[in-house]
Amino acid sequence: MVRDEPAIAEIWTWLGEIPDPEIPAISILDLGIVRDVSWSDDEGERALHVAITPTYSGCPAIRAIEREIVRLLGTRGIARVALDVRLAPAWTTDWLSIAGREKLRDYGISPPRARAIDPNAPIDLTSFVDERAACPRCGSSAVELVSRFGSTPCKALYRCTACREPFDHFKAH
Fold this sequence. Notes:
By secondary structure, the chain is of the alpha/beta class. It folds into two domains: 8-85, GMP Synthetase, Chain A, domain 3 (2-Layer Sandwich); 121-173, no CATH class. It has four helices and seven strands. A four-stranded mixed sheet has the order 4-7-6-5. Strands 1-2-3 form a three-stranded mixed sheet. A hairpin with a 7-residue loop joins β5 (143-147) and β6 (155-160). The longest helix has 14 residues, at 62-75. The termini are far apart. The relative contact order is 0.14. Mean pLDDT is 87; it is low at 121-130.
């Protein structure tokens, strides 16, 4: 008996169930790292291809994300999954969904502000810390940078001068 392959829209929904290993309040879809999902014939068999882009090229969570994608799709009956890690164009915080930004804030992480980025422009390392951070607890923009490096490389550590609470800020890049 041949089972019909799931529709791509259904697969996208399934992938939205996978939390980011470093920030479990946000899914890999909200994070914007899933770039493409498609069916193809691979060596005479149907295979599901999933393209992902890590938040940065040395992201240690990418292997865990790959394993979780294969595991989840396997539980849904997809035997052949081909993962394609795309480093170009580089991931940008502009790929975060609006819902993902809200989930970050609710989790206590100040999200980066959305901005337009030219993927062909040279990288300005000073732009990796967004000086427009706002406290996710009280909403104040009266904040000070404590450290350019927070709990993970993609975050900076700030302190709110209004409520005095420290918080991570997801770096814009």
